[in-house]
Amino acid sequence: SIMPAVLSAMSKGARSGLLFKGGSDVAALSQVRVIAFDKTGTLTCGELHVTHVQGVNGFSEEEALLAAASVERLSEHPIAQAIVREAERRGLALEKPARFVSVTGSGVQAVWREHLWKVGKGDFVHVEDGVFQEGEGRGKEGETVVFVTRDGEAAGWIALQDRIRSEAAIAVHALRSQEIRTVLLTGDCPAVAAAVAKESGVDEWRAGLLPDEKVEQIRSLQQRFGPVAMIGDGVNDAPALAAADASVAMGAAGTDVALETARIVLMQDDLNKITEAVGMARKVNRIVK
Ligand code: ADP
Ligand code: MG
Fold first, then answer.
1. Considering every ligand atom, which ligand is closest to the CA of 211?
2. Nearest-5° Cα angle at 90, 57 to 51
3. CA spacing 20 to 30 A to 54: which of 13, 16, 63, 197?
4. What's the 201 CA to ligand 1 centre distance in angstroms?
5. Residue 235: what pLDDT?
6. Probe ligand 1: pick from 214, 236, 237, 250, max atoms within 8 Å of CB?
7. Sites in the chain below the pLDDT cut of 70
8. How confident is the model at residue 289, as a pLDDT?
9. What does UniProt give as the signal peptide span (predicted)?
């Protein structure tokens, strides 16, 4: 049975938009030494918009965007939504692709107008060095870049801008005063990770991580510091959420997979609630002990 103090914390949490799925999740959170954050949709708002489209190798800007948007229409990723929105804003007519495949944490591909198109990060689509460097140069400004290829040949790249959550730096600072180490784990490139880490003030960051590599990072943090909480919103975060000692999902904008996997849900996507949750969990733990 659940101790009255735990039940009371759970109902108090629920009233302020903090959902603990079980009593043991309160105890788990009270022990946490490290909180690992996903980037897109967690430390950032996850509402991206396209800032630049570049055609290369004789492909026009419009061709690259139309092909990318036609393929991305079948993806739920915030990058995909932004690319589709930009194509629609420019009045491009999207056409249905065939044999669509989504590779979580890397990109998408499909057959469109009898060619195989890929849209995604550099090491997923394999573009030549010159194009890669041109695109990645945008990363220093914190912009995410995805590359577009047709039958293995670079056709263009698309730069997208996200916004860091307004409360991110305050929440990270508050966690530090609770003696919790903060780490950013992202599938995006090092330049973008560094920019977001700097703005939010997290202690460490790791970039270019595939979903399984996020799990490896959780395990390594557990060995170095003790119990770890993971907070994320995406399909790509689910394995890391499952591996962590405590797991938190962004409730408003999070994917179903993240909501199902995580044991704690932030109903309003407010990062300050994590500090509140840790404080509440620690207090309960003292009472129960
Ligand atoms: P994060 O860890 O920041 O939440 P993801 O793991 O979802 O990011 O994605 C990592 C990278 O993979 C993105 O920065 C992007 O380069 C690429 N990517 C993932 N999904 C897509 C997609 N649908 N279209 C294009 N690129 C994608
Ligand atoms: Mg995410």
1. 1
2. 65
3. 197
4. 22
5. 87
6. 236
7. 289
8. 64
9. none
Rounded Cα gap, residues 196 and 40, in angstroms: 10
ipTM, two decimals? 0.97
Rounded Cα distance, 156 and 107, in Å:
15
Nearest CA to ligand 1 atom 21: 107
Instruction: Name the residue at shortest CA distance from atom 4 of ligand 1.
Output: 40
Report pLDDT digits (tens) over 212-251: 999 999 999 999 999 999 999 988 999 999 999 999 999 8
Query: How many whole angstroms from 86 Cα to the centroid of ligand 2?
Result: 21
120 close to ligand 1 (CB < 6 Angstrom) = yes
Domains belonging to the chain, first-starting first, are 4-45+164-288 (3.40.50.1000), 49-161 (3.40.1110.10)
Q: How confident is the model at residue 197, as a pLDDT? A: 97
Cα separation, 229 vs 214, in Å, equals 12
Nearest CA to ligand 1 atom 26: 120
> Does ligand 1 come within 6 angstroms of the Cβ of 106?
yes
Q: Is 188 in the pocket of ligand 1 (CB under 6 A)?
A: yes
Q: Which of 25, 38, 162, 269 is catalytic?
A: 38
**Residue 76: its pLDDT value, please?**
86
